[in-house]
Design a protein that fits this description.
- It is a single chain.
- By secondary structure, the chain is α/β, with parallel strands linked by helices.
- The chain has one domain: TIM Barrel (Alpha-Beta Barrel).
- Helices cover 42% and strands 15% of the residues.
- It contains 14 helices and 12 strands.
- The strands form 2 sheets. The protein has an 8-stranded parallel barrel, surrounded by 9 helices. The chain has a two-stranded antiparallel ribbon with strand order 5-6.
- α1 crosses α2, α1 runs parallel beside α13 and α2 runs parallel beside α3.
- The longest helix is centred in the middle third of the chain and has 21 residues.
């Protein structure tokens, strides 16, 4: 793709409870139990809406996280949280992450459609397949289902969900006979205010990309370098075209880990302090999980061994994200750091998701560069600490993007699907 892009950048907020860094809860702006308070979630939703962001994302959790690498080991049901936030907001999209492996398509479709009505057409679903054995154990399984089977089920789950939503309010009978699901009857629910709830897909494996190309309205992807981001962008868009869809109907939004400061030096001091007050094992624990190798057993002052840079021993049962792993290993191949250097480097450049440490103006440069080079259609922002970073995004970053013609002045459509449609770029 080449040419001039019209439309504007899409901006989402991935709400990782307090922030993506483990020590975020220690901020003097927060109480340790704020995540249980309705007022906290209202504050996040209204701040994101003040910034005119397109959507907020919140992940489900089917097991307690491992504190060795999970910054937010306890999470609440996102559909319930967003139903509450819907009352305090009018425009922001409300996207709940939910698993196709451990949910039922009829029940989840009804729950998401309920959120869609409570929010007047602002609901979205971020589809994941769940890859960890801890969650599988909570559903009576010894280990998680093989990756290829999870994505087969996910594709059929998405297909049936869309059939159910399309039939809502029509009285039309649905007959679905698949390998994983059987349905024969009406779906008795009122039609979605936005046509269908918005469907995002998160995952960078071949199965995930194929699913996104066929069904998704957006992709929450993991990209560190612009080169790999452009390749992913082309792959999904071409897949959408092969599936008979308009490629512009699939928005590509990489996650971006953020630390902002008045100067780059101030931002670096902030991220260093946040990491140094986090558990010492966090970075190594997270990386071990992400690449499927015990980083603690590697020589810290040596480069990563060649065998580490190859694929996991058994990709079918690898419990990390293939998209994260591919992004991380490509970054290591390009920069060739020692293990110690890489663990420190991830503070500034991200690990799995890309990272950014600097000023709002430098962040606007980054967003503009990726957008105009067709590496993305926007970003899912992931601040280190939500409560103060959201203020900076609303008051400093967004005005800079507006001044460059990259972002809306005010909300125009009233639905989440309308936000995506109004922002999409036109190639001339």
């Amino acid at each position: 793709m080449s040419g001039t892009r019209s439309g504007h950048v899409l901006l989402g907020l991935n709400v990782l409870v307090y922030g993506y860094i483990p020590s975020a809860w220690r901020s003097p702006l927060l109480g340790t139990d704020d995540f249980l308070a309705p007022e906290y979630w209202e504050r996040i939703g209204t701040l994101a809406e003040r910034a005119r962001l397109d959507a907020v994302f919140l992940a489900d959790a089917l097991a307690l996280g491992d504190p060795a690498y999970d910054a937010n080991p306890i999470r609440l049901d996102p559909t319930v949280v967003w139903a509450h936030v819907a009352r305090a907001t009018e425009h922001i999209g409300l996207i709940a992450t939910a698993s196709t492996t451990f949910n039922d398509p009829v029940e989840l479709s009804a729950r998401l459609l309920t959120l869609d009505h409570l929010s007047a057409g602002r609901a979205g679903w971020n589809l994941v397949t769940t890859r960890d054995d801890r969650s599988a154990a909570n559903f009576g399984l010894d280990r998680v289902v093989a990756r290829s089977r999870r994505y087969e089920r996910a594709a059929e789950f998405a297909d049936l969900a869309r059939k159910l939503w399309s039939a809502a309010g029509t009285g039309r009978r649905i007959r679905h006979e698949g390998e994983h699901f059987h349905y024969d009857g009406e779906f008795r629910a009122p039609a979605s205010p936005q046509g269908l709830p918005v469907l995002f897909q998160a995952g960078g494996s071949p199965g995930g990309r194929d699913l996104a190309s066929r069904y998704a309205d957006g992709v929450f992807t993991a990209e560190i370098t612009p080169e790999t981001a452009r390749e992913h962008y082309r792959t999904v868009k071409r897949g959408a075209a092969r599936a008979g869809r308009d490629p512009r109907d699939v928005a590509i939004m990489p996650g971006l880990l953020l630390t902002l400061g008045s100067t780059e030096e101030e931002a670096r001091r902030r991220v260093d302090e946040l990491y140094e007050t986090s558990p010492s094992r966090y970075a190594a624990g997270w990386l071990s999980h992400a690449i499927g190798v015990d980083v603690g057993a590697l020589e810290l002052d040596e480069p990563f061994p060649p065998e580490v840079l190859r694929g996991p021993a058994d990709p079918e049962f690898f419990t990390g994200s293939i998209g994260f792993r591919d992004s991380i290993l490509e970054q290591i191949r390009q920069t060739r750091p020692t293990v110690r250097e890489y663990l420190r480097q991830t503070r500034y450049s991200g690990s799995g998701h890309g990272g950014f440490v600097g000023t709002p103006e430098q962040l606007a440069d980054r967003i503009e560069e990726w957008y105009h080079s067709y590496a993305c259609d926007g970003f899912n922002l992931q601040p280190d600490i939500l409560v103060d970073s959201l203020e900076v995004i609303a008051d400093e970053l967004v005005p800079l993007l507006r001044s460059r013609g990259l972002f809306r002045e005010e909300y125009e459509p009233t639905t989440l699907r309308g936000h995506l449609t109004s922002a999409r770029a036109v190639t001339t």
